[in-house]
Specification:
Oligomer: single chain
Number of domains: 1
Order of helices and strands: EHEEHE
Radius of gyration: 12 Å
Strand order of the largest sheet: 1-2-3-4
Strand content: 15-25%
Shape: globular
Largest sheet: 4 strands, mixed
Number of strands: 4
Length: 77
C-alpha cells in the first residue's frame, strides 16, 4: 500500500553529502511507502517511492543551478 495523502519531512545533518542523503531518503520512502521531503542547501526536495536516488540528486543540482526552491523527478519523463 502506498500512502497518497501523507508525506514525511526529515531533517538533514549539516555537512551531509547530497548523494548519501538522496540514497537514504529514497530508501526511507520505499520502506515507509510515502514521499519524503527534505531541505538541502535551500532547495526543498521530494523523494518518492521507486525514485532513482541519482535522478533525485540530479533534480536537486538542476534546481540549485537555476535558483529554484523545489526539486523532484518529473513523472512520465
Amino acid at each position: 500500500m502506498i500512502l497518497h495523502c501523507l508525506n514525511f519531512k526529515i531533517d538533514i545533518y549539516a555537512g551531509s553529502d547530497i548523494s548519501t542523503v538522496c540514497q537514504e531518503a529514497v530508501a526511507l520512502a520505499n520502506h515507509l511507502r510515502m514521499g519524503i521531503w527534505f531541505d538541502f542547501n535551500g532547495v526543498h526536495i521530494l523523494a518518492r517511492v521507486a525514485d532513482d536516488p541519482d535522478r533525485v540528486e540530479e533534480s536537486w543540482r538542476e534546481a540549485l543551478a537555476k535558483n529554484y526552491s523545489h526539486a523532484s523527478i518529473k513523472r512520465g519523463a
